[in-house]
Amino acid sequence: MFDFLKKIIQKKSKPPQKPKKVQAKAQKPAPQKPKKVQAKAQKPAPQKPKKVQAKAQKPAPQKPSFFGLSEKLKEGLAKTRETLNTQFIDLFSSKKIDNSFYDELEMILLTADVGISATSMLIEKTKETVKKDKITDPLELKEILKAHLVELLKKIELPLDIKGSSPFVMMVVGVNGAGKTTTIGKLTKLFQSQSKKVLIAAGDTFRAAAVEQLSVWGERNNAQVIAQQNGDPSAVIFDAVNSAKSKNLDIVLADTAGRLPTQKNLIDEITKIKRVIGKCHSEAPQEVMLVIDANTGQNAINQLQIFNDALNVTGLIITKLDGTAKGGIVAAIAKDHPTPLRFVGVGEKIDDLRVFNAKDYVEAMIK
Hints:
alpha/beta; eight-stranded mixed beta sheet; 16 helices; elongated
């Protein structure tokens, strides 16, 4: 009987144990849930801003190079662009394309020194395209004009090639004040950026400041300068070419005295310099580079013709485009005397020399 009672008591005493199990189960997730939520919330917080900062910093170190279109080219042609676009705004806002429209377009192009023959050709080609494509909107005509201008300038788009036997001798010629000496300094920096070893020949022995200027450029670029004050320019350049050959240098930049196309005695002298260079290097000078001041305008054609007759000019550099509204002279040269335009100068800084590109030039000149 007592055993029976003990069993009943034991069965009754078991239920109080159930809440202990419930509490144990309830206690396990309580401290764990917040920990997991906090861990997930903390992970992305420090990572997101780091990724955004890394992407934003990438474009910062990029700098313009000597080659291709840059904002500097647009700035350099700002005066030409402003002059053209101010007039184009009124012209292309016209309601119709008629003879008076073309007359005004002709006057605008002539004002920018595009030249008579180049202007006539551009207008005729534009008229043909307008008629063929049945263009009636004057705004569309501007893009047609730009396309024909690019086509014209492509004729003189031929970058300088310095491959072949060394040293590559460049004879730099031009009238007084065209910017030959400064251009040589810029060319030295440009070629050195291509890992070329450059030597400068101070062939302008008539102007004392020329030797000093070249010496300064030589020091800035860490390039050797061969000079003789009041010496024979032919002898100076001859020594420079021989020195470059013995030292296995890549390029010789030969400066020459400025001279007007009408000064026959000086033109004869420069032809002598070219002959002397050929005696110490059978293939030299590989480039006869004529430097032209953009402010010269249509007289640039006359300069090119005379220097070409005497020296067979192989390349052009047009300087000081940043100081003139006559950027259209490039089109006049392309039409009247097509000669490879190697570089354009668009400022005074050492890197303000740009390889000529027809499309880039037109885009910078006409907005």
